[in-house]
Amino acid sequence: MGLKCGIVGLPNVGKSTLFNCLSNAKAQSANFPFCTIEPNLGTITVPDERLNKLAELVKPQNVVPTTVEIVDIAGLVKGASKGEGLGNQFLANIRECDAILHVLRCFDDPNVVHVDGSVDPVRDKEVIDTELQLKDLETVEQRMKKLKTQATTGEKEAKRRYAFLERVHAALLQGKSARTAVETNDDPALVNEFQLLTTKPVLYVCNVDEASATTGNAHVEKVKEAVKDEHAEVIMVTAAIEAEIAGLDTPEERAEFLADMGLKEPGVNKLIRAAYQLLKLQTYFTAGVKEVRAWTIHVGDTGPQAAGVIHTDFEKGFIRAEVIAYNDFVTLGSESACRAAGKLRVEGKDYVVQDGDVMHFLFNV
Can you tell me the mean pLDDT for 312-332? Predict the structure, then answer.
C-alpha cells in the first residue's frame, strides 16, 4: 500500500530539518528560501513496539516494519497558485500526496530569517491555506463549467457531481478549505475524483524551541485556537532536538538524551503515529520463523482486503483467515500455545480486521 504524506510550509520553518530526522534521505538544509528545489522522498518506518515484542517471541530470520513515504515539498510563497516562486510544481507535488503535514514555525530566533520578516504561525498557515484554496477554486470552477450543461439537462450522475462542486465552491469563496464542505455521507470516490488539494487531511506540526518542547508556548496556543473548528490535530516537535537525537548512534544514548530533555520519546515518533492515524490506517501482523512483519491497512478493511496488501492473489482466492489477537499471542507466547488454548479464531470474508491482529491467510488461486 503506497501511502504518501507531503511536508509543506513557508520557507525556513524547519521542513527539511524535520524531513532529515524522519527518514534516511538527507535533504539539503540551509538558512535561505527555496533550498529544496525538487521534492525529496523518504521512506519512514512506523514505530511500533508490538512488532519488536512479536520478534522477541518468534525469533524470525527477518523483521519488517510498515512504512509511510514522506515528501519534503519546497516552501510555498504568496502567489504560488498563480505560479509565483515554483508554485505550479509545488502544488502538483502536493496533489500526489494522501495527506499534508503542515509545518509552522513557532519559535523566535533572530539568526533564522523569516520570509515575511516576523514570526506569526497563524498568518503563515493562512498564506498556505489561501494558495491551496485558490488553486482548488480554479479547479472547481473549470469542472463546474464542463458539468453545467449535463446537470441542467437532468443527467443524474452529472447533477450529483455538480451539487457536490457547488457546495465546495461556496466554502472556497468563504475562504474555507474544501474539506469543510465534505459531509459524512459523501461518496469517497466522488470526493477524490476532483483531486482537490484542500480535501486532503492535515496535521499541523508546530516547530518549537527547546524550552517549549514539553510545555508549548504562546505561538502554539494561537495555532490551536485558529484550527479548533477544522477537526485537525496539532502536535509539537523541536526540529533541533530531533536532529540531535537522529545523530546519536545507540538506543541507550538516545534514551539518555530524551531523559535529560524531559521527553518520553522522540517527537518524530508522535508525528509518524499521528500521520498514520490521520490517514485512518492500522496495522496487522504476520508472524513466522522466516519473517515477522507489520502490514498497513485502512481501518474497516475486511480479511480479503488485508490479504490483498500482501498479494492481489491472496484477496482474489481468499478462503479464510486464522486470527490471534495481539494480547493473546503475547500472553501465551506462541501460535501453538494460542491454538491449544482456543485463542486462534477462524474468520471468513466478512471479518473486519482489528488493529494488532496476528493473521495467517488460506487462499486458493
Answer: 96
CA atoms within 13 A on the CB side of 137: 16
Instruction: Retrieve residue 154's grid coordinates.
Output: 437532468
Backbone angles phi, psi at 318, to 5 degrees: -55, 130
The predicted-structure confidence for 218-265, as pLDDT tens digits, reads as follows 999 999 999 987 777 899 999 888 888 888 878 888 889 988 888 888
- Higher pLDDT among residues 258 and 328, named by residue: 328
CB of 265 closer than 8 Å to CB of 316: no
> What is the rounded CA–CA span in Å between residue 76 and residue 33?
9
Cell (9 digits) for 326: 495481539
SS (H, E, C) 293-353: EEEEEECCCEHHHHHHHHCHHHHHCEEEEEEECHHHHHHHCCHHHHHHCCCCEEECCCCEC
Other C-beta atoms lying within 10 Å of the C-beta of residue 313:
13
Q: What stretches of the chain adopt beta strand conformation (E)?
A: 4-8, 40-45, 62-64, 67-72, 99-106, 202-208, 233-237, 281-287, 291-298, 318-324, 345-347, 358-363
> Which residue shows C-alpha cell 502544488?
91
pTM over 0.70: yes
- Whole-number Å distance between alpha carbons of 19 and 41: 9
Interatomic CA distance for residues 296 and 310, integer angstroms? 10
Work out the pLDDT band at 28, boundaries 50, 70, 90. very low
